[in-house]
User: What shape does this take?
Amino acid sequence: MSDHLEALGRRLPQILDGLLITVELTIGGALLALVIAVALGLLARFENILVRGFARVVIEFFRGTSLVVQLFFLFFVLPLPPFYIEIEPVAVGIIGLGLNYGAYAAEVVRGSIDSVPRGQWEATIALSMSRAQRMWRVIFPQAWALMIPSLNNLLIQLLKGTAVVFTITIVDMTAVFNKLRVETDVFFSYSIALVIYFVLAYALSTLMGLLERRATAKLGRRTKLQTVPEVEGAAA
Assistant: This one.
């Protein structure tokens, strides 16, 4: 055991660097995924069939293909002709995670907006609000409170999804513990990795819980809102 602890001490600076990369990937990927989710979720509700069809194609494409393959395409294929687009590995990880999980979250956004009671829509029309005013001042705040629990689940899945980015040369936390495994053993190294991932996931869940309570309180509701069904099968 002393040898294992000594090896852990030697790897500690690399573990901290890997932890920082994992946090960067999680935060960056989550922010990009949120932007993509809101954009695609709103476009998927358009009456125009071309706009709605475009959103559906993008959503189904990124939901229907593997995150690993998407990362490989961004990292290995884009620099080749005819694209000639080179992206830094960390940026590739953020873009890949954002696109993949943003497609799943888009369905949460669309479903949450559709779940807002019809009376709320009718009230905004009666008040002669514009389409934009109806969405951002009345409908979306209510939908936001509805979608947070499901977005929380996707955020945790995104955190766990960062473990696959080491396949494109990013030395994240998982890559460091793979090296520690060689110096110690499988149980010791991966047990520590599990604990760290659990702590990160618990911190994110706590933060999202606070965000949900704040969003619900702003609506002036004392009863728990009905949540949108969780989107299953987020990629890995």
